[in-house]
Amino acid sequence: MRLAIDRLQSAFLTPGQVKASHGFMGLDSRLIADGTYFVIEAQGRIAGCGGWSRGATAYGGDHSAGRDDRLLDPAMEAAKVRAMYTHPDHVRKGVGTLILSLCEAAARAEGFAALELSATMAGVPLYRSFGFVDVRAFEDSGVPLILMRKPISDL
């Protein structure tokens, strides 16, 4: 995760913004406990990871402030795609798309009609190619992010 943040964000952020990213990005172990986190391996090594949440916390790791454990209402709220990281050696090899596909299928199976995520600038092209649309830009600790959404309902 640290390597992905450092290498992949450096083309979009200043060194200070990359450093600030470490203050709120990272793994949320609740996703692992919930069984909603995926790890993709290539040749016995981690190529990428990411997951989704039934909870209201939009992004951030175990160390992040402002976490919200309230369960989302699948009929009214979007599941949250969280903690997406691709090892720099595996970018543009389908790792992120595979993780997003797994998240979408699992959230749909639990009755969610949409997905939301807080995209880093490095992730925006992947998310747009997967059908996410921009909702609004915002910042955390001076780091630019975009709230994005994708409908996933079969209706």
From TrEMBL:
It comes from the Bacteria. Residues 1-153 form the N-acetyltransferase domain. Keywords: Acyltransferase, Transferase. The keyword Transferase applies. InterPro entries: Acyl_CoA_acyltransferase (IPR016181), Bact_Acetyltransf (IPR050832), GNAT_dom (IPR000182). Gene3D superfamilies: 3.40.630.30. One of its GO terms (molecular function) is acyltransferase activity, transferring groups other than amino-acyl groups. This is Acetyltransferase. It comes from Sphingobium chlorophenolicum.
